[in-house]
Amino acid sequence: MSKIQEKKEKKRIALLDAAYKLFSKKGFSDTSISDIVNEARVAKGTFYLYFSDKMDVIHTLVYEKTSQVFGNALKSLEKVKVFNMYDELLYLANNIINQLSDDPDILEYFSRCLDWAEFIEIIKLKKKSGDFYCTKLYDDFFMKYDGSGIKDPEVMMFMILEFIVSSCYSPIKNNKPSSVEDIKPYIFNVITSIINLHLSESIEVLEETY
Length: 210
Prior knowledge:
2 domains; mainly alpha; Arc Repressor Mutant, subunit A; 11 helices
């Protein structure tokens, strides 16, 4: 990378870091482009050299921050022995909770700004464009259980991830109503129930009932 390219990359990263900080603190709607460039200490025109608008920034952050968390969880999973789908998903859930506990800024950002459905769509678009990392991430995290007796695995993962962030927020940030370690067994029980509900047999029973 040339010095000019390095300088450009530093400015892009500075803008993303500023946006991440502000979105986590103020939320997406209450953060303006002027806020971002002021925080990054660059001219407003510089913003448009890297991003078309504020949505472009949020999409980039959603992809980068979420991929980082998922990538870390999958790498950790590769180092342990798990014997079934339940153990695997609970291990991933535990790893993600631990990452959120270690970095409350990411938890705050996820809580304020992240739309999991939107992230899945971003991953799909990048997969279509031939992005190898996104293809592997999507297949390993969201579609791994397709054809394994799980109906709508993408929906199952969406529900699990939404539940993790919402249920962990107060225990991690405020230690209320209890510590996140105390809450974990309840979280894992709910995740197990979500998995059970997505077993094809369970879905068929529910469809017949309602």
